[in-house]
Amino acid sequence: MSARGERPQAWPRRVTVLGATGSVGRSTLALIADHPARFEVEALAAGANAAALAEAARRLRPRFVAVARDESYRPLKEALAGTGIEVAAGTEAVLEAARRPSDWLMAAIVGAAGLLPTLEAVRRGAIVALANKEALVCAGALMMREAERHGARLLPVDSEHNAIFQILNGQRHAPERILLTASGGPFRNASAEDMARATPDQALAHPSWSMGAKITIDSATMMNKGLEIIEAHHLFGLDQERIEVLIHPQSVVHGIVQFPDGSVFAHMAVADMRVPIAHTLAWPDRIAWEPPRLDLAQIGRLDFAPPDHHRFPALGLCRIALRMGGAAPTVINAANEVAVRAFLEGRIGFLDIARTVEEALHSPLAAQSADSVADILAVDRETRRRTEDRIARKSGA
Predict the structure, then answer these.
(1) Does 3 fall in a domain?
(2) CB-based contacts of 207: which residues, under 8 Å, 6+ apart?
(3) Residue 49 domain-assigned (yes or no)
(4) Which of 68, 125, 131, 333 could potentially form a cystine with 157 if both were Cys, beta carbons 3.0 to 4.6 Å apart?
(5) What average pLDDT values come out for the chain (397 residues) when binned by 10 residues?
(6) CATH code where residue 313 lies
């Protein structure tokens, strides 16, 4: 993943954005719009929000636009009538957007649904800005193998992994360990009793970041950080014993690397996803934009502490899944997605999210192999079905 020896980018760069109407997608499009001479948009894809996708398409004039939901096709087509933009709908249309001949692709489709489109972009040798961590959680070995085979570049968009990438980019020696920072979420200092009574609104009140609902709940349970351990293992080729998590409530330091000589490098920036997005968008160059600048004197202090594994068991569950290998990471990701949705719908409590994931991790599915996309998708589907059934039985639905 090193950028050493890379030639500067020839502008304009042709780009595709998958997940264009989500939080990361919208931030990406805003940065692209601010630099019209540097970027041409090849394709945009989204799940169901035809109105937002049409607005972005009218503004940025892509050649191709895809919406995953068939029922969103007609309103999207009507909204773009007369623009000359090609419009399509369905799963295959999203895959077509990923196949289109762009130099750079933002993979920001949330969840396991982003796996196949991301893999399509990797297999055509694109620069892939990876905001969909589930692609590496579910299929990390396969994804890295395919990237190497086809000459694709995987650039991490998660602020923590992007921080580590930027530090290692200028280093010639392997790190001794890396540390992924975590704000601790809204329940950093909450008791287990308070967490058991937590409502979705309380869990969605993140103290540092503005993100989508699913990733915000994952931050509250710290499942997000556990999944990031798995992601970091694949991205940086490190055993999990060399990947640590550190609670850092100010969200100023996003990643830390320690080298064998005792040197420690930290990456600092404001808590704004446009920072890592802008880095990947122009990589290996950089683009200027106007984020709020980091003022350490105003911040005054930086605090760090180890995570509480008792109150946040998701961290340990992800480490167990990584040690198990095979289908275990796929199982933990699928069960978590189902459990988070059930919590947001009021069908289970906050602490039931981790309990639900742990039950799934003990199922025979977790011990299966996951050597192909077909294996991974089959395990994902069956895990979701079984998890939904368990939740329904417990809730009496």
Answers:
(1) no
(2) 183, 185, 186, 188, 249
(3) yes
(4) 131
(5) 50 96 95 96 96 97 97 96 96 96 94 88 96 88 94 95 92 90 91 94 80 85 95 94 96 96 95 94 92 88 95 96 95 95 96 97 93 91 96 81
(6) 1.10.1740.10
